[in-house]
Amino acid sequence: MNKSISKKTVQDLELQTVLHHVSEHCISGLGKERVQEISPIASRKELFIELNLVNEYLSSFQSENRIPNHGFDNVTEAIKRLAIENSFIETAAFLKIATTSLTVNELIKFFKKFEVQFPTFYKRSQKIEFTSYVDDEIKKIIDNSGEVKNNASSVLKQIRREINNIRGKIGASFSSALSKSNAAGYLDDIKETIVDNQRVLAVSAMYRRKIAGSLLGSSKSGNIVYIAPQATLAYSREFQNLVYEEKQEVIKILRALSEKIRPFTSLLEDYITFLAHTDAVSAKAKYAKEMNAVLPKISKNKRIFFKNAVHPILWRKNNAQKITTISQTIELNEKQQIIVISGPNAGGKSITLKTIGLLQLMVQSGLLIPVDERSETYVFDAILTDIGDNQSIENQLSTYSYRLKNMRSFLQKCNEDTLFLIDEFGTGSDPELGGALAEIFLEEFYEKKAFGIITTHYSNLKVLANELDNVTNANMQFDERTLEPMYKLFIGQAGSSFTFEVAQKNGIPFHIINKAKKRVETEKVRLDKTISKLQKERNRLQKNSNDLESQHTKGKEYLNNLQEKELRIQEKLAGFQELYDKNQKMLSLGRKTNELLHKYFQTNNKKELTANFNKWFADEKVKHVKKNPSKPKTTSQKKKAIVVKKQLEEVIKKVENEVLKKVVVVRKEKKIAAAKIAKERAEYIYSVNDRVRIIGANSIGSIDKIDKKNITINFGNFTTKTSIEKLELVEKAKK
Known about the structure:
There is one protein chain. By secondary structure, the protein is of the alpha/beta class. The protein is 56% helix and 14% strand. The chain is flat and about 140 Å long. It has helices at 7-12, 15-23, 29-36, 44-60, 76-82, 91-113, 119-125, 133-141, 154-184, 230-261, 265-291, 312-320, 349-363, 399-413, 431-447, 459-467, 499-505, 510-519, 522-603, 606-627, 635-683; strands at residues 187-195, 198-204, 213-218, 224-229, 297-298, 304-309, 328-332, 338-342, 376-377, 382-386, 418-422, 451-455, 471-478, 485-491, 691-694, 700-707, 710-714, 719-723, 727-731. The protein is built from 21 helices and 19 strands. It has 6 domains: 7-150 and 260-295, MutS, DNA mismatch repair protein, Chain A, domain 3; 155-245, MutS, DNA mismatch repair protein, Chain A, domain 3, CATH 1.10.1420; 298-515, P-loop containing nucleotide triphosphate hydrolases (Rossmann fold); 521-626; 630-673; 684-731, SH3 type barrels. It starts with 6 loop residues before the first helix and ends with a strand. A 6-stranded mixed sheet has the order 10-11-12-8-13-14, sandwiched between helices. It has a 5-stranded antiparallel sheet with strand order 18-17-16-15-19, with no helix packed on it.
């Protein structure tokens, strides 16, 4: 783990929960283990490689070139046994090793073929040796069912031939004994059965001494005894000897195969590592697809810009319950170094802080994040967190003592490459004393140029945020009517805690709230009231702005629909015009043909008909050639065409020069006209009810009031003030 990103930070931001969700997409046990072990990557080079691998795998979901199957069995133990001298492994383990080798070779070939689409995978796969030796050698000896092949050695082939012969003799001898005993009436109705994997005669107990052989058992009632015929027993002993010899020969063959494969054990370990990593990358990509996650731009400049960011764990939980998760847009940069978020409890301050922290931690751990694709971030050397109630029973430390110890650690580690996240900054002690100390800490972080987000209820921290240049206040929006949180972050203004309003909503009597108000310092109540009033005003303006934006969007969509309809009508008209022209041409040809035939029927003069037809045909040909001139073929024709082309170019150039001269004149005239209009506009004296617009805007309003150079404009839903210089006249007031 990155030494500057502690286990506490990982725990505070709940990265392990995200990794658990990612591991659900793994197809192998080793892949799951690898995902569960993911931690922030210290090396920037390794981090970029990992992020690119996940991004390439994600892109393959929308491509025809899907990455081949990379499933595999865990053969780690088999490889360890294989590495021991004179050892051997079972045929099933060999087959799994062969499949693993084949899978890796297929992936190496695939990434080589599609190097352009998967450049990072290609570079990574080329570090692994491509060899079919392991797979080929195993397949020579072992068939797909896991049996050693007959031709694995000449000795095995001979033994198995003899085994088959003995099986035949055993069958024949048993059939002979069965028919004789049956003819003599010694057998029970079932005639035969199997005992200890061996065929035996089912003999009636009274005739057991009539049949030569070995007694292997009897029925529960004792009425039937099971006898292996004497002739079969001799062959069975020989069969057992051959089976033993076969087993010894198979072991010998597997030892020899192990000797051949043993030099490749380190390569096989690389294969397993490669496949486990590929499985982990694929799980990250599948998780990213589920979350609509992307790879944000990783900037060299210190900046975090997360647009439409959502908390991954909250999103998954809400999605399961079919609840919409509200996204946040937040930015930290050199001019907005620290953000102080305030507002009522349960308004979403902590989840906003955790969202930014977790997303940054995910990126630095090689995971894609659920933000807009235009988002951007930076790789920090350290991420420091102080979130939640960290009372330490084990060390007998109070919450405040623990937090002070944490602040000491922050002050030691904080620098310009640090991101710090502190929830409920300064709490746990006397509000005035704790608030004063929190101010000093904040100033220290500010001086060290660290980036950070803090949440607080302390008014002095809100005031300090306004006083420091690169520190910004923010608040979580709150509906002042319903007193319900809106879970939407607003940058640029501190938030009211709505303490008394929330208390009133929760049923606290009004006279008690009034008493509490009287006991609080007057100035603090006034500050909180002012903030609350500003929030209400801002919410109202935000609503108006959203309404205007919605109307503008609808108007734009309507205009686009009209343009699309007009385009389709134009295309249809062009098609109809083409069809009409073709029909007119056919009618013209028909009329001319009819005319020639009519004249011929009157005169019966074939010669005149032929002459007229040829003349008409020649005229049509000339027209066609004019419309579709033939390309020059001979050298002389080509030279002539070049001369004509040069002449045309000279004529065009001459015309262009003449046009340019006229354009210069027209431009001068337009410039004079524009200056005249500008002069008239500057000299125009605006009056009430004139229809005007602000320069650069689309909305038109009417003048309500004129106060020297300031003008109040009524836009219907709202009014605004501006100066005369920023206005342009649309229509004079009707008198």
